[in-house]
Amino acid sequence: MAHLESRKHISPDSGFPITIHPHFNAKIKEHIPPEAIRSEITPSKDRASFADPEKKALFATGAKRTDLTESIGTILENIQLSQLTPQQLDELALLVSERGVVFFRNQDLTTAGQEALFEHYGTLDRHPAQKTQRHVIIKGSTEDHREIASYTPWPSGDFHADTSFELNPPSYSLLRMEEHPPVGGDTAWVSQYGLYDALSEHMQRFVDGLHAVHTSRLQYDTILDLWGVGPNRPPIDTHHPAVRTHPVTGLKALNVNPGFVTGFAELKKRESDKLLDFFDLHLHSADDHAVRWKWDVGNVALWDNRATVHRVIPGSYEAPRRGIRTTVFGEKPYFDPKSESRDGRARRLKAEAAAAAANDNDKVGVADVPTKIAPGSESGDGRTDATVEIVKEADVPA
Ligand SMILES: [Fe+2]
């Protein structure tokens, strides 16, 4: 069970613990972070920007692609991450940017191999509670997260994008499982492209201009008490666009998560609280934009931290759960008002394709159409007789 300081302070009336202010919690009060607050950096260009849109090199490996849902999540089989070339890694990043999260089974990656592979994608980031420089160990949660939330300000079991409070939140995250219980400890991801798409157009226009307050303060206080871990850096609040533009796909993604967002900079408190409540419901009811992964040893999940949120599902398993996670610094989130939603792009492309097809048909005048074509034959320019019949009907006034 958690070593919560609050559990030592029991109300004589109810018999339940009383939460004391963090300032009087010795574990929080006495901790002095050893590092300073970070400054903004400009990371190198996203590797997915260099990829072949058709990903021919990646699929030349014989990799078998299966999309797990329409909105998010793909599994690649018959592929070893440890064997991929730089070009194939770029194409994999593009696939991840598009699908949100990509899964692999039976991987032979080592921790050193994982770190080296991830350095292809940028400079390795470090979680505030991470003691080693190059990776963090992810154990999962067997706490009763609903009960813990009574005493800690941070919703530790809820959806989040990794360290979204940083000035440069991670672009990509990779989690490789080394030990895992036979049941329990699943991780769920939800598409932030999909969550934006699912808003009404009026709500999209409203949220487009807002800034979400992403904070590490609640996590800072909580992990000092709950985990007994001293964060490396002081807590910060960062205002990021509530809707961000993905630098590779150019798509809009919602940039709000219950793990780290405490409000909206432009709104008054009550407005902000109610909007957060709505987004909590919006996220937790988005089964059509979610995917859930049942882990096994040797599995890997590689996700885009800008286009998804995730959470490990708390459980009561007793066998150890141990994953190795690496992240790399991403760009400072930005909002380009000219960017489009994923649904909006799909509608535009469909309309453009229909318009192009209609335009092609317009170019085929009646005089150009052979009057007699044998059934099943082609008209000479690749159009079948059936196509020609349609063109003739459309072109000839009644
Ligand atoms: Fe996470």
UniProtKB/TrEMBL annotation:
Alphabetized UniProt keyword annotations: Dioxygenase, Iron, Metal-binding, Oxidoreductase
Cited InterPro entries: AtsK-like, TauD-like_sf, TauD/TfdA-like
Keyword Metal-binding part of the UniProt annotation: yes
GO MF: 2-oxoglutarate-dependent dioxygenase activity; metal ion binding
GO cellular component: cytoplasm
Pfam families: TauD
Cofactor(s) of this protein: Fe(2+)
Top-level lineage group: Eukaryota
Ranges where the TauD/TfdA-like domain occurs: 66-325
Disordered: region residues: 367-386
Sequence similarity: Belongs to the TfdA dioxygenase family.
Protein name, as recorded: TauD/TfdA-like domain-containing protein
Taxonomy of the source species: Eukaryota, Fungi, Dikarya, Ascomycota, Pezizomycotina
